[in-house]
Amino acid sequence: MQIISTDGGAVQPLVVDTLVSTSGERYDFVLSADQKPGNYWVRVRAIGFCDIQRKEEYAVLSYSPQADVSDQELAFPTVEPPGWDEPYPVGVILNHPNTTCYQPGDQSVCAADLESHEVHRDDALIDAKPDKKFYIAFDTFQADTNLLFSENGYVRYMTVALTFNNIGITNNISMVNLPFPPLTQPDLLATVADQFCNSSSKPARCLPDRACFCTHRLQVALNDVVEMSLIDDADQIRELYHPFHLHGHRFIVMGQGQVPPGTRRQEDKFAWLKAQAPRRGGMPDSHNPPYKDTVSIPSRGYTRVRFRADNPGFWLVHCHFEWHLGIGMSLILQVGDVDQMKKPPPGFPTCGHYRPDAESILGMV
Q1: What is the Cα–Cα distance from 274 to 64, expressed in whole angstroms?
Q2: CA distance 205 to 91
Q3: Do the beta carbons of residue 16 and residue 93 sit within 8 Å?
């Protein structure tokens, strides 16, 4: 198949045999029907938890030498589809979850390898010194069952297949959503000022060795060049990776790869990434990185993205697995000051949290 676009941005055509796409990503491709006429199985296999559950789907691709093929001429294959344990050739893979990226003889192609089709590349963005750099490590952990329902317990957790009481974090912060939309009700921001946090500014209640539950916010000035390095902080490589999505902007993918195997501590991963060149080794200066808005992070690896923060507002950055978003694997990127953001129209509806008053409920019992 010939890849021609990703996330709505055209790329220079690239021929691959297997495409791996995660939640939120979009790829357009052209399939060359150059085999002999007949009926062919199209095979789609899930990854991660769905792979453990042996989820697989099939479709039929049927074509003939005639230019005009009626529905009556399409036939279902007479042979059974291949079973789960029957291997199939994968060849060149785009977006493999365990890819090392750019290794000699490696059959894997990373998203950063794709070449944007846009003629006028933004050299100022690609080669600029970023105004803001962020290193964001994400992971999930299992809550201590002794704390779940205690006064010092957790804000939220989720129980899923094979694991229990999962909580999502970015830089050891589990996101707590604001009780109102900040873009349309900015007058309420002062009432929750003590709820905002980041890795260098956390509420006093947060302990160094515990995940902090607060509203994770990163702030940049309008039109800043922003570079984010997203790091999978898991202990081991798995058959799963996280797709991260940025609202309100698109970004260029500057590099991807694996963190050195012996690098375990989060601080060491950050230090290693800071020492790397802005573009991965061997990338020619003429390379025009692809534009995307959702990107997969190689398992226990990293992806570096860069964008111009030219859209003022409060924008969510999050893992596109919905349950990971639900358990706190997200943060807010504030672009510009409130007075630089668009105002809601007169009479725009307001809203708040949906939680009932606990004391009133207890009084009814």
Answers
A1: 55
A2: 52
A3: yes
Question: Nearest-CA neighbor of 113 among 227, 1, 244, 6?
Answer: 6
Summary mean pLDDT of the chain: 85
b/e map of 191-208 (b: 16 or more CB within 10 Å)? eeeebbbbbeebeeeeee
Q: Which two tokens stand for residue 120?
A: 């006028």
Instruction: Determine how many CB atoms are found less than 10 A away from the CB of residue 84.
Output: 9
Chain centroid offset of residue 315 CA: 14
Of 305, 328, 136, the residue nearest 225 (C-alpha): 305
Residue 359: in which H helix or E strand, if any?
A: helix 358-364
Q: Which two tokens stand for residue 177?
A: 């959503």
Q: Structure tokens of 364?
A: 């009814």
DSSP string for 183-202: TT-GGGGGGGGGGEEBTTB-
- Among 250, 223, 236, 239, residue whose Cα is nearest residue 317: 250
pLDDT tens digits, one per residue of 239-286: 777 999 999 999 999 988 888 888 888 888 999 888 887 766 556 777
- What phi and psi values does residue 322 have, to the nearest 5 degrees? -60, -35
CA pair distance 350, 185, nearest whole angstrom: 7
The Cα–Cα gap between 44 and 39 comes to: 16
Region 227-241 average pLDDT: 85
Q: Comparing 22-26, 59-63, 231-235, which segment has the lowest mean pLDDT?
A: 59-63
Nearest to 307 by CA among 198, 222, 197: 222
Tokens 């902007």, located at residue: 249
Task: Please say whether the beta carbons of 268 and 306 come within 8 A.
Answer: no
SS3 for 340? helix
Query: Is residue 171 classed as helix, strand or coil in its secondary structure?
Result: coil
Class of residue 263 by CB neighbours under 10 A (exposed 0-12, middle 13-18, buried 19+): middle
pLDDT, tens digit, 9 for 90 and up, residues 55-94: 788 888 877 765 555 555 545 566 678 777 776 667 888 9
Q: Which two tokens stand for residue 127?
A: 């080669």
pLDDT at 361: 62
* Residue position matching structure tokens 């009780």: 179
